[in-house]
Amino acid sequence: MPALNKSITPIQIAVFVIWIVLTLAAFAYFIDSKLVNFNDGTKITYLDPQKLSASLTQYIEPSSRSSILHFNQANCQCQQYSEAHIKDINDIATANNFNVKHISLEDHTILPATPSVAILNSLGEVVYYGPYGEGLACSQTSGFAQTMLSNFIKGYSADLIIKEAQGCYCKV
């Protein structure tokens, strides 16, 4: 019976290195294919907050309360990744007397993708519109929308429309 050779050969090292490189390339390919741009570059690139506010008034009820509008699509696989953000936002909104509405979209001339959210002040003006978060499964951050909502409740107001984000989004 021949003795076992315990040294690593250059061929073994080369095979290992090639395997690592191919594994990393496959990982990068699959991750990149899951990340899409929130705005396809045509819908909200030049959109101003006043025009967006006018477009969203059809979804809010006349009142003196601020509103949260959650936008989704029936067959959007990405919706599942935003559920934790939606729950957190709804908890904050309910505790602060906001109107909360869930809207299912099939087509929209302005809104580029779902899942997305709009925060409107009591006058129906956009404080925030965009995705809940970004990154793979939209879980990279605690969420753009949640941060904006918390800041709005503290008295800080903006008219922020997120136009550049990458994550799991479904085009409208």
Number of strands: 9
Number of domains: 1
Q: How large is the count of helical segments?
A: 4
- Class by helix and strand content? alpha/beta
The radius of gyration is 22 Å
> Average pLDDT value?
85
Proper CATH architecture: 3-Layer(aba) Sandwich
Q: Helix proportion of residues, in percent?
A: 25-40%
Give the low-confidence spans: none
Choose one word for the global shape: elongated
CATH superfamily: Glutaredoxin
Report the top-level CATH class: Alpha Beta
Strand order in the largest sheet: 3-2-5-6-7
Range of strand content: 15-25%
State the end-to-end distance: 69 Å
SSE arrangement, N to C: HEHEHEEEEHEEE
Summarize the biggest pleated sheet.
5 strands, mixed
CATH fold assignment: Glutaredoxin
